[in-house]
Amino acid sequence: MTGANTRVLVVDDEEIVRESLGGWLEKDGFQVASAPDGRSAVERMKGERWNVMLVDLKMPGMDGLQVLEEARKLQPDAAVILMTAYATVDTAVQAMKLGAFDYLVKPFDPEELSILMQKVVSQQSLVRENAVLRKALKKEHRFRDLVSKSPAMQRVFELAQVAARSNSTILVLGESGSGKEVLARTIHAESPRSEGPFVAVSCAALTESLLESELFGHEKGAFTGAIARRKGKFEAAQGGTLFLDEVGDISPKLQLDLLRVLEERKFQRVGGNEPIEVDVRVVAATNRDLRKAVAEGSFREDLFYRLNVIPVTLPPLRERKEDIPILVDHFLDRLEAELKRRVQVSPEAMAALLAHDWPGNVRELRNVLERGAVVAQGDVIKPSDLGLAPSAARPASANAPGEPPTLEDVERRHIAEVLQHTGGNVSQAARLLAIDRVTLYNKIKKFGLRRDGEEPEPSHG
Questions:
Q1: Where do the DSSP E strands lie in 164-240?
Q2: Cβ(229)–Cβ(220) below 8 Å
Q3: Average pLDDT over every residue of 250-256
């Protein structure tokens, strides 16, 4: 930044001071305007942007410190220099605490003013250069809505970019909340089909009959309640991408139906006889081990190979904790637009985030940050604002002394605590855990938990 594009506002109740300061600054090439009191300065701040403000400390009505406080709210990037004939150490300390760039003692000479203004210009240029570098760094670590600097995720980005250009079926593997749908949307956006629709279906959330109708549609009268013909998701995704989430949970019958569509590129609506051709790119996702499911006989081997043309595995957040700071920055940028205010994370809160195991992965991190931004008293999120249970970040071991708990023990304990916290409300617990209700029901059953989070009473025959 140079003087020619630096806008300066001089605020002083003495006209002679405004004129002399304005003259000196204009000679140095600055764009200068003035205000005769604090209130008119604040009004000008509401409608115009200023790089530097020279503000008299002692003014009738609104004094310089009050103008400084308003400037911090309205134009936090502006450098405010306070001017006073009554400078004391206390005044200087108070001004700097409130965010003043510096202060000048009256009377001051033009050379002193010039040196200070050059210091301001240099500092603001550095701030801007840093912002540009940070933006470039963010871009380097970004694949559309996905951000990461971990080597494992960078390999995912590279594979996804190559896969997006093909028409092949993609299988996205990863834990709940790891970003499978975000990756699927990104692949669609990077593909030649980006102008077509992106349609998502959660296969775990519906019964077999409902999912069949959801995927393939139905004819009028096909079943009770089918009062009209309805197109399914395959037809809705024509020319675009169909995302099948939790594909590992579909029934044997639907596995066969899906296999036929992938092989023949046509299907029939429920209750219909007419074959419907479809041009759809399928991206499927699951948090299950499909190879194990094939070995156990619960998932068709031929369908597995049809889906597993290009497998992409998303690593869990606990295995790439170096991504937490840039993910925090990414989510806070988004929350700023939603909440209309900028918040930052305190060093202590960041330490708590880095210590947490993130069973709900990136989705859980986003939810935790949103909670922190909403409940924070000021513009800084503290550890207490995050709502992380101490046992989730540093689980107490129930195993032998000195032996760490298993991951399953940690997960069971954390789910139990959240269920207790919600009073057995499964929907609310699922939101806090950043997983869907079906997944939570499965985990409650797996761990033998009651809805209130307590272990079931032992049976006495």
A1: 170-173, 198-202
A2: yes
A3: 93
Closest CA to 62 of 83, 41, 80: 41
Task: Give this prediction's pTM.
Answer: 0.57
Strands 198-202, 170-173: pairing kind:
unpaired
Q: Is the torsion defined by CA of 230, 233, 235, 236 positive or negative?
A: positive
Cβ burial, residue 228 (10 Å; 0-12/13-18/19+) = exposed
Which residue type, as a one-letter code, is found at position 351?
A: A
Residue with tokens 């775990």: 204
Selection from 74, 73, 19, 71 nearest residue 82 by Cα: 71
194-209 as b/e: b if 16+ CB within 10 A: eebebbbbbbbbbeee
Grouping H, G, I as helix, E, B as strand and the rest as coil, residue 96 is helix
**pLDDT tens-place string over residues 381-422:** 999 999 886 543 333 334 444 456 677 777 888 888 788 777
Can you say whether residue 93 is alpha, beta or left, with left for phi > 0 and alpha for psi between -120 and 50 degrees? Answer: alpha
pLDDT tens-digit map of 322-361: 999 989 988 998 888 888 788 889 989 999 999 999 999 9
Q: CB neighbours (10 Å) of residue 130? A: 10
How many residues are present in the chain?
461
The most distant pair of C-alpha atoms in the chain lies apart, rounded to whole Å, by 97
- Domains of the chain by range and CATH? 3-137 (3.40.50.2300), 148-315 (3.40.50.300), 318-447 (1.10.8.60)
CA distances, 365 to each of 328, 330, 389 (Å): 8, 11, 14
What is the Cα 129 distance to its own chain's centre?
25
Burial of 233 (0-12, 13-18, 19+ CB in 10 A): buried
